[in-house]
Amino acid sequence: YRTDYISLDKVPVWKHSGAASAKSLYKANDELNQKISLFRGDITKLEIDAIANAANKTLLGGGGVDGAIHRGAGPLLRKECSTLGGCETGEAKITGAYGLPAKYVIHTVGPIAHGSVGETERRALRDCYYNCLRTATENQLRTVAFPCISTGVYGYPPEQAVEVALKTVREYLEDNPAQMDRVIFCVFLKSDDDLYKSRLPAYFPED
Ligand code: AR6
């Protein structure tokens, strides 16, 4: 038993701040809103069904969130990853989570942007979120956390990435309402926390 693990009951459902909602293209849907959390902290501590990993094509580990996940999981994760034949940009592959409190890790490879993005990168980032959610559903996994894929070393501008992340999750939940109980946006930086707080009302509006 580890006191630093964070179970789902300690991750509150996202709530509007009470400020006037941002202009939204989407209909208010309280059932969907109840499935969303914003959590600032270390994704490796979450005791949920699956955490997404912002990996590279080798799937053999790296820095950033990938490094933290491999450190927490231990060497058996790398061993399993080494059997998968890598992963293409936008695709997702599932493994066990070994020493982590989550049940599974869903590895995905974000686009390398280095500060500028076009439609190719945007679509690849969308594919990352979508394919992680689809992989979770295929494995009957109902609680999933995402880091801010591609916005670290890979240089995707966070204020553009947040739009892709929120839009893809919103549309997935609309299309698959019975398959998913909770999607956690796990931010690490204060700036991403602020960004998600300001943009969540546009994708998950209240009445
Ligand atoms: N929990 C949650 N988020 C984290 C954590 C953590 N423990 N640590 C960092 N972040 P990055 P990328 C945030 O660079 O841009 C690796 O070397 C971080 O603040 O990890 O997709 C891979 O092997 C940022 O917001 O991923 C690849 O080579 C976010 O995670 C490459 O980096 C993503 O930053 C992938 O680059």
TrEMBL record:
GO terms for cellular component: nucleoplasm. The keyword Hydrolase applies. GO terms for biological process: DNA damage response; peptidyl-glutamate ADP-deribosylation; purine nucleoside metabolic process. Residues 23-204 form the Macro domain. Keywords: Hydrolase. It catalyses: alpha-NAD(+) + H2O = ADP-D-ribose + nicotinamide + H(+). Belongs to the MacroD-type family. MacroD1/2-like subfamily. This is Macro domain-containing protein. The lineage of its organism: Eukaryota, Metazoa, Chordata, Craniata, Vertebrata.
